[in-house]
Amino acid sequence: MLRLRPWLSTSLTAALIGCGDGGAAVTDGAATTGTSGGIDLTAATTGDGPAPTTGAPTGDTDTDTDTGGPAAPTFCAQIDVSLVLHPSAKIYGLADQDALVEHFTNLVEETGATVRVLPNVGTEFMATTDCLLAQGNAASDPILVFGAGGEVTPGAADALRCTLDRFDVYASDFDVGNFMFSGLMFPVLQRPDWPAPGATGLAMLVAATDDKQANMYALPGQASEAYLRLVGDGDRRRVSAFTYGDGGLELHMFALAVSDKSRHYEKSSIAYAAALAEFTPLAVRTCEDFDYEEPLPETPPSGCKRIDVLFAIDGSGSMDEEQDALRGADGMPPVLAEFTDALLGELTDVEDFHVGVVSSEQGFTALHTHRDYPMTPEGPDTDCGLPPGQRWLVGPSPSFADEFACVAATRSGTEEMTYYNLAAALHDPANAGFLRDDSLLFIVILTDEDTYDFVLDTSVAIRQRIVDAVGGDLDRLVVLAIAGGQGVFEMPETVCEGVYGGAAPGRRILTITRAFRERGLFQNICQGDLAATFAGVLDDVVSACAQFNPVP
């Protein structure tokens, strides 16, 4: 669809107003003193910073053309770029500076939006310089207005180059500038003028290797959720991320989680300038698609006819109560059986479903056919009665609740490999036939511990194996992780207590789950019970099924 640029015609000025309302929550930050290498670590850490340099317009406007045709496409009025740069990243040479200037210049000229840039190193403090004084900024105002209305602001490129030169020699008594997620999120939490309400948000994280903070803040799942919530107001169309680094697995997971227009680039595979050039059209699209709705398809999706449900159930001793609730043991209502009944009540066109259970024990990725597996060897006394050669249940059937109660009774050790085993089970030849080519895949993790599979594989690789199992089509997938919550970026949590006892934060589980974006659902196991959890995701699974259009 051809789109006119908004600064080419005054009749399109009103279209800039429809960017929506959303703002960052403000958390007061304590001022911290210290200077280093020409960089002031004091002024910009206070919560009562200067008024916004510029803000997005507010209000509604009629965007119909004079000829009475359809409403003109609208564009975002402002792009706020959080630029976080690792001082040790080798991107400070003249050619790389030119590439970044060209990126922002293209962004200004191709969108016509006001483009503001907040440069920072990876630090919990806001690193400011005197490079913006010539632009008329106050000493405490680190926000560079790079351009507006299709024109680059005079002196903006020089101010950016000056800032890059200062970051190149950054040194601090507090850190070495490689806390990438803190460098991104702390200004959002500490400054009431960043970002502007209604602005499109771009997160640009450039690291030498990866985030190095190594504490509860340094988590891509938590950081991506906070960026989407506080900057994008929960709307993925309003945000995208550019991440760059060597071995940047956490940066990669952050980019995967933010939006489909985000990208991660490995320094060993692509030069910085080339990565910026490749990302520029995606950044432009983030602005253009801000409130653009794709037309409805001419042929509505047919919806899924089959659903395949794969469980990874923690079989350690602390999970007895959760397992009993899921299975319906000791006279309790069978949570999963009631959920599938409700699901089929909503999805009357679904013909059948498969249900499989995989252990959390390392090395066991074949689906269960026996009770208390794998700690109890398979034998006649533990056989769940599945047909020979079939390692999954088929429903609906009169015996489904009893069969599931049997295979879902798992016993394993205390080093849970939940996500790794899920991904491996989808590719294990022993499970051939479980996942069908035309089915919706619903994955469920149930655990009170984090997944320890970092000793086996990376989170990026595990996520990719799951995506590969559905042919790269996220529309075929819904992932529900039920694990210990970790709070939010601005208020992280540790061990929680719920109706089933205590649970440790599932930080790695949350990170992988967030990387499936809107198809990744997370439920704190300490909040409510399993019946409420499954009832709460019923609409998500129904919606995913209704939107599914299996390839014949």
Shape: elongated
> Could you give the distance between the termini?
29 Å
Main β-sheet, in a few words? 7 strands, mixed
The amount of beta strand, in percent, is 15-25%
Q: What is the mean predicted local confidence, pLDDT? A: 85
Secondary-structure-based class equals alpha/beta
Segments where pLDDT lies below 50 for 5+ residues? 1-73
Q: Using DSSP, what is the number of strands?
A: 21
CA radius of gyration is 26 Å
Strand order of the largest sheet: 6-5-4-3-7-8-9
- Total of helices: 13
Helix content: 25-40%
Biased composition (Low complexity): 42-67
Region (Disordered): 41-67
Protein name: VWFA domain-containing protein
Organism: Nannocystis bainbridge
Plain-language structure description:
The chain has 552 residues and is α/β, with parallel strands linked by helices. 28% of the residues lie in helices and 18% in strands. It has 13 helices and 21 strands. The chain has a seven-stranded mixed beta sheet with strand order 6-5-4-3-7-8-9, sandwiched between helices. Helix 5 crosses helix 12 and helix 8 runs parallel beside helix 13. The longest helix is centred in the N-terminal third of the chain and has 18 residues. The protein is elongated. 51% of the residues are buried. This is VWFA domain-containing protein.
Question: How is the secondary structure organized here?
Answer:
Blueprint: E1 35-36, E2 39-40, E3 78-85, H1 94-111, E4 114-121, E5 144-148, E6 151-152, H2 156-168, H3 180-190, E7 200-206, H4 220-230, E8 239-245, H5 249-258, E9 263-266, H6 272-288, E10 306-313, H7 320-327, H8 335-346, E11 352-359, E12 373-374, E13 393-395, H9 400-407, E14 410-411, H10 418-425, E15 440-446, H11 459-469, E16 477-483, E17 487-488, E18 491-492, E19 496-498, E20 501-503, H12 507-514, E21 520-524, H13 530-547
Parallel strand pairs: 3-4, 3-7, 7-8, 8-9, 10-11, 10-15, 12-14, 15-16, 16-21
Antiparallel strand pairs: 1-2, 4-5, 5-6, 11-13, 17-18, 19-20
Helix pairs in contact: 1-6, 3-4, 4-5, 4-12, 5-12, 8-13, 10-11, 11-12
